[in-house]
Write a structure and sequence with these properties.
Order of helices and strands of chain B: EHEHEHEHEEHEHEHEHHEEHEEHEHEH
CATH architecture of chain A: 3-Layer(aba) Sandwich
Number of strands of chain B: 15
Low-confidence stretches of chain A: none
Largest sheet of chain A: 6 strands, mixed
Largest interface: A-B, 23 and 23 residues
Number of domains of chain B: 2
CATH class of the largest domain in chain B: Alpha Beta
Number of strands of chain A: 6
Low-confidence stretches of chain B: none
Helix content of chain A: 25-40%
Helix content of chain B: 25-40%
CATH architecture of the largest domain in chain B: 3-Layer(aba) Sandwich
CATH class of chain A: Alpha Beta
Radius of gyration of chain B: 21 Å
Largest sheet of chain B: 8 strands, mixed
Strand order of the largest sheet of chain A: 2-3-1-4-5-6
Radius of gyration of chain A: 15 Å
Number of domains of chain A: 1
CATH superfamily of the largest domain in chain B: Thiamin diphosphate (ThDP)-binding fold, Pyr/PP domains
CATH topology of chain A: Pyruvate-ferredoxin Oxidoreductase, domain 3
Distance between the termini of chain A: 26 Å
Oligomer: heterodimer
Strand content of chain A: 15-25%
Structural class of chain A: alpha/beta
CATH topology of the largest domain in chain B: Rossmann fold
Mean pLDDT of chain B: 97
CATH superfamily of chain A: Pyruvate-ferredoxin oxidoreductase, PFOR, domain III
Number of helices of chain B: 13
Strand content of chain B: 15-25%
Order of helices and strands of chain A: EHEEEHEEHHHH
Structural class of chain B: alpha/beta
Amino acid sequence: MERCRLVFSGSGGQGVITAAVILSEAAVLYENMNAVQSQAYGPAARGGATRSDIIISESNINFPKVIQPNVLICLTQEAYNTFCNIIRPGGLLITDTRFVKTEKKVDAQQKELPMYVNVMEKIGKPIVFNICMLGAVIRLTDLVEPESIMKVLENRIPSDFLEMNRKALELGMELTETIKS
Amino acid sequence: MKTENIKFIQGNEACVEGALYAGLDFFAGYPITPSTEIAELLSRRLPQKGGKFIQMEDEIASMSAIIGASLTGSKVMTATSGPGFSLMQEALGYAIMTEIPCVIVNVQRGGPSTGIPTHVSQGDVNQTRWGTHGDHAIVALTASNHQDVFETTVEAFNISETYRTPVVLLYDEVVGHMRERLRVPETGELPLAERLRTSVSEGVDYHPYLPREDGRLPMSDFGGVHRYNVTGLFHDMWGFPSDNPKVVHGLLRHLVDKIQNNVNQIARFKEFYLEDAECILISYGSSARSARHVVEYLRPRGERIGLLELQTLWPFPHDIVNEKCANAKYMVVVEMNMGQILREVKRAVKNPERVFLANRIDGVFIAPRDIRDILRIIQGKGV
């Protein structure tokens, strides 16, 4: 596998950092890859702009930060405005239609997905918005198997919440196919 | 598929795993960013194994508590960052003077004062060396990845028991907070040094500061079967204060020599591509990750560049650095401060005018690009 560098960005409370941890933990624990995850960390962890960097690779990872991501997720307008220019040419940019109005074409595959709206309509709990986003990411990148994500969740959350998370993950995967952008 | 001893965790958590592996059974601390996860995790994990966790009112009390607990026979640790480490300096000197084993973790953030709490720095290197007053020696270890964080933490406990000295683990925000893989070694895989206890039996006089023939000082758990005195004043073999010049001279020499005479035993380092290197990067902690990235980027492009990664910062391994750099044309110290290890490297090598600094001091993690830009300037190629 080629080294994949990802940046998840959004607002504190959306679960952006949690999603980054779940994805990289799945890669390390269940897919036998290397991963490094770090986050921009300031006094405004809730409500402020937030960013997490992930590198997933089969080889050793030294520098842990991402300069030019292959995959960039922006879940707020502020995150989009701040980070859309750093994407690696030919990369993948995923935004949520509820929160981000894209303004310009970047040299990347742009996916504008109605993730938040669908999560609210079909599941009704904003708490799994980040898992829906992860579903879209793994379907579009093939980084890890959905079952690896579920195994991480089994260890992290109460069993009563697993089904809701599985639905959100599958919803995200489906959206990448039904929505052409 | 999942192996139980593989974890995906923060560097601070790797430090906790290492401490528990080494036999930690007492922690007192006052949580502070970016070290908080160490206290948080130990508040859960230590009671589970029958150990004690105490959240103290401040870092002065934290340091004092671990010294007391160690004297009674526990393996002890505290964790802090710059502002708390400043408060610990007085009691750190007391632990040096009384020769009480303890481990102090400083996950560095930007200073001086409360500085820049959530961003990275390596500015406490010289504070670790000379933060407490008076002539003394200190041991400080660091690491750049979680496997090494685990191992240096275990080693810190071993050194503190072997030499009866405080050991400082000087990590930084990047290593403390980032997550990566850790394989927890099996029991017995890493050697553990246990407390050397006196063989003097109850009812027989025990001299707390009378060395054995090999120079080591066996301890007796305080509050146990022996009564003895412990003081931060210069003291005789009974532990009682003394201003006898021979006693004062002998104790100070002993405190410094027991560390400085074992520099090479205490020295931990890693080397990458040094054999034919014309340019040697010297780095430590998270900076060494960027330095290694640069080396692995430039090697295939024909540059004869290597990396010496230091894991022991104090006592500084001058002879090892001198030997490793003997054939290099120039050396570049990569660190996130204004040249604290640079100075030691200049003292160590035969051509100090060929030692340069690649640094950042703005709270931003030094990137491979920063180092390469400085290398180009040194090489006369411009930016």
